[in-house]
Amino acid sequence: MDQEKLRLLTRPFADIKSRPGRNGQSIQYIEAHSIVQRLNDALAGDWSFRVLEREILDGEVIVLGELRAGDVVKQAFGGSEVTKTRDGKIVSLADDLKSAATDSLKKAATLMGVALQLYGAEEPPVTPSVPRLVPPVQDGDEPDVPSNNRLTRKQADFIARLARERGMAKGEVDALARERHGKSSNFLTVGEASAFIKQLQQDAA
Questions:
Q1: Does residue 74 share a domain with residue 38?
Q2: pTM exceeds 0.85, yes or no
Q3: Which of 98, 107, 171, 176 could cross-link to 76 by cystine, CB 3.0-4.6 Å?
Q4: 3-state secondary structure of 200
């Protein structure tokens, strides 16, 4: 990718939005249409995005998306909570998958330098090295963890449920897991997942 395109992609945004986060904190974000417009402006529309895989869990949908611009290819996971009515019925999985795909696009765009200003001193999302969506999700941040010691589907679903009860987004859960265990929640071992679940329960008490 030439330097002019890179300069346009990485230009700071002025239309930054914010929403309430956990512990009274405010989360900053860029709306999806602004990300799409930036890609169109910088790349003259010469880009494409597609969903490679998807996974529907008990309370969350996860997709692996791929953003292409010329010879540059970036992949990123995106997620969205499953929207349910008060009596537990799913409202629309299609809408939830669209939200997850949008989240994936935004994260993949970040890997091309779009909206890096939101991360400050934090690291941007990591491109997954293994594009597989099987429970637990493999996102490439700790490839040395043996798969037979990875947290179980039941543990992953329980963590997702606890997060929903606390009003935490997937990114917030992963940030907390990295803070306490040095890796995202998807890559916790069985023992670490048990400890993490206890920590979430204690925090909510």
A1: yes
A2: no
A3: 107
A4: helix
